[in-house]
Specification:
It is built from six helices and three strands, in the order H-H-E-H-H-E-E-H-H. The chain is α+β, with helices and mostly antiparallel strands and about 120 residues long.
């Protein structure tokens, strides 16, 4: 079960746009080395390390040593636990459908704007 202090750490970690961007990159390219990840951002490697520390404390990033390299992986379980806390199976399915409609409408509006 997820505790209030766990949720505080998770929401704090997700509150910064750079940390969300880090999670997006790890979702699309799991197992990146810290240096490779840091190269994608216009901040120092030290700043990325600080963001990673916050993400690891929230259990949103898992790191694994591979020789001298530290490989990083997204751990989506804490986010799912928060979702599960407030959404039952029915409302989760309903919310998922509404999100799908929203994305389809946004995509149609983009296509319409380009023509």
């Amino acid at each position: 079960m997820i505790t209030d202090s766990d949720m505080d750490r998770i929401f704090n970690a997700l509150s910064h746009s750079t940390r969300r961007a880090i999670l997006d990159r790890l979702r699309s390219e799991p197992g990146q080395a810290v240096g490779a990840l840091a190269a994608n951002f216009d901040v120092s490697r030290i700043a990325i390390m600080a963001h990673l520390r916050v993400l690891e404390e929230a259990n949103l990033v898992i790191s694994e040593k591979d020789g001298r390299t530290r490989r990083l992986y997204l751990n989506a379980v804490p986010i799912q636990q928060i979702s599960d806390r407030w959404l039952d199976a029915y409302s989760g399915s309903f919310a998922s459908r509404l999100t799908g409609i929203k994305y389809a409408a946004e995509e149609a509006a983009k296509r319409e704007g380009k023509q």
